[in-house]
Amino acid sequence: MFPIIWRYLLSQYFKVMGLCVAAFIAVLLTSRLDEIAHFAVLSPTPALAAQFILLQIPYILPIVIPVSCLISSILLVQRLSKSHELTAFRSCGISLKDFLTPILFSSVLVAFINFYIISELSTYSHYQTIIWKEELRSTNPLHLLRNKHLMGAKGGFFNSLGDSKLGKNAGEVILALPNKNQSRITLFLAKELISDDNFFEGTDVTMITAMPSGDPDSFDHLLVENAAKTKTLTDDFSQLMKQKQWKIGNDYLTMEQLLAKLYEEQANGFSVNDINCCYSEIIRRFSLGFSAFSFTLMGLAFGISISRTHSLKKILWVVLLAGGYITTLFIGKSAGQNLSLSLALYTIPHLLIISLSAAVLYRVNHGIEGA
């Protein structure tokens, strides 16, 4: 009898979890629609754009899977409680432990899968999408100018007030770049900027720059230069604007690469902060992978109802615990240099979830409403 019941429970658990994962993926892809559309315009082939969309999925799965496990387990035990199937199971001699065992073992399997996604697939997809975006942007000066992160790093500003076509031309352009030699700002105004495969052209270009005067009590001298048309090689302008170096963070590395980096930093005597960041990233991945199990346990514990009246108190507890864990997850990532703090932020929520869930299940098993 047990295999039949277990198949029934697992089929319901995985069916709801799969639907939740698909729904979350659809929502998160929709939220990144602007970025996807922008890449699709830049992409030379539709196949590359399709690969870019698919690579967004592993990057969002590590958070989606635990939340889907939580929702699936809650809905499963709530439905069994309301339809009195859970009562029928227990009247047939099936204990609460026998009822929960297959679901918890399945959640352990899901946790291993989630850890693999975090350590291998998610890091690869994150790294590959960044590489593709940088390569496509570097081939077109207008894309470089519209890159807010790059312009922010350069200390510049770009805006187009006229008619523009993405990657082709921009009208009524305002471009401000820092002049580090003079500690001033250089302002470029152009009627139109046009970009093609080989050249970057400007029409009715005005350059305004300030030069310090010899007298400290006087105002700066303004130098205004007008040009009806300018032309430069696309590669030259791209090399000028691109970042000179690009640092690969720990979240771009697979587990094997991260461990190799950790051993190398320890052998070469790197700073304690760099080594702590590697340890913190490893702990974060284990914590996020393990969350599939802890969230399933929390859903099973707080979803069971043995009373005639249904209270929302348990759902509030679930929201607080799940929201608290996700919050500490992001705080712990920003506190990676403090190993003790990040370790506490990644592990204490799991201990709290497991202890509270075990206490609720103990009370339910003795006929007392859990929360």
UniProtKB/TrEMBL annotation:
GO BP terms in the entry: lipopolysaccharide transport
Keywords of this entry: Cell membrane, Membrane, Transmembrane, Transmembrane helix
Pfam family of the protein (one): LptF_LptG
Source taxon at top rank: Bacteria
TM spans (from-to): 59-78, 99-118, 286-306, 315-331, 343-362
Chief localization: membrane
InterPro entries listed in its UniProt record: LptG/LptF_permease
Subcellular location: Cell membrane
Membrane topology type: Multi-pass membrane protein
Name this protein carries in UniProt: Putative permease, YjgP/YjgQ family
